[in-house]
């Protein structure tokens, strides 16, 4: 009677691909033959979402596959296991996904390792939406610079407790330049990052915390406004020597900058 | 059993050839014969190419010997052709690898594959050999589904695989069976170790 391991390699690969993440990590623990096989074939993962979350006590890997959600928790002392799993996923992911990172810890060498894995892929990771909550520009840079530019459409950055997050190197990256939509939360920016190209349609949302009479000052700076259909304050400006328009809208704690052409 | 008195299995019982349809005859390695419609054969790239190359007329398919499929048995081949008849005329899926590959197992396929694991693996092997893309998809998906939510120990039972320890023990046993001196040497080595010596060096 044939067993799984007696199947031709291309069939084994097909089955292993269907098992997908995270079942594949259980397969690796069945026996050394299956572990060797799984490690050698580089299975194709087709996750829709991948995320990792690092707190002071635990590490989590979260993923969505075929509309099902999976979560794996690791103790902070099990960093090696966490990293092994993350490495395999990042190396084997084939389809375009949403990538979320929530890390306000300061694990030494972590981003260098992640960057190394992403750089070692035969083709850049395809991400259409990137969401990062972290502390430093180099952390964002180590991820963002490795992704396939052009595929990445949406970028969301969050900082921690309104600390300053520099973005001056990020804005030079092709991945940044080609993205279409940006959401910024909870950090102080000092770099001029917006809308440098009036010919490209882009959308920025920043989420602000108004202090003192900041909201009033903001309105005074921009001048007369009109109330738009969704009850937000709206301003329009024309780029010099261009047909492009900049729309600025403000509603509650959300300010939107949008280039229209 | 000789070819002449072998029973002919009509897989597509509902569609006895009333109109002028071509029904090819195939024979498994245990001499079971099957009549399969031209349209159903198109699900198998291998068989479709084969019959195209043969260029049989409707007289040929009746008069010439059944086409032998040497390495698939009758039990498996019956399942394969039942599947092909049920899905005849359906488009053959193309996997471009760009989107998450989602394969649903239809009710008919689920019932067809409600078989023991040994036969299921044979069916997969046959689907691969005959290049029947969608049958390979659903059967591999079925084997993959068997892994969901199981522990490594449960998977060993499902997939009929030994644990590392059992595997090692089996290898040792096989080695010893081949070479009876192996155990003696090992025992001698253990004995010398007990006597407190690295006396081999």
Automatic annotation (TrEMBL), chain A:
Q: Where is the F-box domain?
A: 1-50
InterPro entries referenced in this protein's UniProt entry, alphabetically:
DUF38/FTH_CAE_spp, F-box_dom, FB224
Give the SMART domains listed for this entry.
FBOX
A Pfam family per the record: F-box
For this entry, list what GO says about its biological process: innate immune response
> Which PANTHER family does the record cross-reference, listed alphabetically?
DUF38 DOMAIN-CONTAINING PROTEIN-RELATED (PTHR23015:SF4), UNCHARACTERIZED C.ELEGANS PROTEIN (PTHR23015)
Which named protein is this? F-box domain-containing protein
Q: What is the lineage of its organism?
A: Eukaryota, Metazoa, Ecdysozoa, Nematoda, Chromadorea
From TrEMBL, chain B:
Segments of skewed composition (Basic and acidic residues): 169-194
Segments carrying the region annotation (Disordered) are 166-201
Entry keyword Kinase: no
* Listed pathway(s): Protein modification; protein ubiquitination
Q: Where is the SKP1 component dimerisation domain?
A: 134-178
Q: Where in this chain does the record put each SKP1 component POZ domain?
A: 26-88
Q: Which UniProt keywords apply?
A: Ubl conjugation pathway
Keyword NADP included in the entry's annotation:
no
What are the GO BP annotations of this UniProt entry?
A: protein ubiquitination; ubiquitin-dependent protein catabolic process
Role, per record? Probable essential component of SCF (SKP1-CUL1-F-box protein) E3 ubiquitin-protein ligase complexes, which mediate the ubiquitination and subsequent proteasomal degradation of target proteins. Regulates cell proliferation during embryonic and larval development.
Give the family from UniProt. Answer: Belongs to the SKP1 family.
Protein name, as recorded: Skp1-related protein
**Species of the source:** Caenorhabditis brenneri
Taxonomic classification, please?
Answer: Eukaryota, Metazoa, Ecdysozoa, Nematoda, Chromadorea
């Amino acid at each position: 009677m044939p067993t799984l391991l007696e199947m031709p390699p291309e069939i084994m690969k097909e089955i292993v691909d269907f098992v997908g993440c995270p079942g594949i990590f259980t397969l690796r623990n069945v026996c050394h033959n299956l572990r060797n096989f799984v490690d050698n074939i580089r299975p194709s993962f087709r996750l829709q979402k991948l995320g990792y979350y690092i707190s002071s006590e635990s590490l989590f890997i979260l993923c969505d596959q075929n509309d099902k959600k999976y979560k794996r928790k690791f103790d902070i002392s099990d960093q090696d296991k966490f990293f092994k799993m993350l490495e395999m996923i990042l190396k084997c992911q084939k389809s375009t996904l949403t990538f979320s990172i929530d890390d306000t810890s300061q694990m030494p060498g972590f981003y260098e390792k992640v960057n190394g894995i992403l750089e070692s892929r035969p083709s850049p990771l395809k991400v259409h939406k990137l969401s990062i909550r972290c502390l430093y520009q180099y952390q964002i840079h180590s991820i963002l610079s490795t992704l396939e530019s052009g595929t990445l459409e949406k970028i969301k950055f969050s900082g921690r407790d309104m600390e300053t997050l520099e973005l001056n190197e990020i804005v030079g990256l092709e991945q940044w330049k080609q993205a279409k939509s940006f959401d910024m939360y909870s950090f102080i920016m000092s770099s001029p990052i917006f809308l440098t190209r009036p010919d490209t349609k882009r959308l920025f949302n920043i989420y602000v915390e108004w202090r003192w009479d900041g909201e009033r000052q903001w309105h005074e700076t921009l001048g007369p406004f009109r109330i738009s259909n969704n009850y937000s304050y709206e301003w329009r400006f024309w780029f010099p020597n261009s047909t492009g328009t900049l729309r600025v809208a403000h509603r509650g704690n959300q300010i939107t900058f949008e280039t229209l052409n | 059993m000789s070819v002449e008195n072998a029973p002919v299995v009509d897989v597509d019982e509902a569609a006895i050839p009333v109109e002028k349809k071509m029904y090819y005859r195939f024979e498994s390695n245990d001499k079971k014969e099957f009549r399969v419609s031209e349209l159903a054969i198109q699900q198998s790239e291998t068989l479709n190419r084969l019959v195209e190359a043969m260029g049989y007329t409707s007289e040929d398919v009746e008069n010439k010997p059944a086409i032998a499929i040497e390495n698939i048995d009758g039990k498996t081949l019956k399942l394969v052709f039942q599947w092909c008849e049920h899905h005849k005329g359906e488009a053959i899926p193309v996997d471009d690898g760009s989107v998450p590959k989602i394969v649903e197992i239809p009710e008919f396929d689920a019932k067809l594959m409600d078989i023991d694991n040994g036969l299921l693996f044979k069916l997969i092997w046959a689907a691969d050999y005959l290049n029947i893309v969608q049958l390979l998809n659903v059967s591999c998906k079925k084997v993959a589904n068997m892994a969901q939510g199981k522990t490594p120990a449960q998977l060993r039972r499902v997939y009929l695989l030994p644990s590392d320890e059992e595997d090692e023990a089996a290898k040792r046993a096989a080695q010893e069976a081949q070479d009876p001196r192996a155990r003696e040497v090992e025992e001698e080595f253990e004995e010398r170790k007990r006597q407190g010596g690295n006396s081999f060096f």
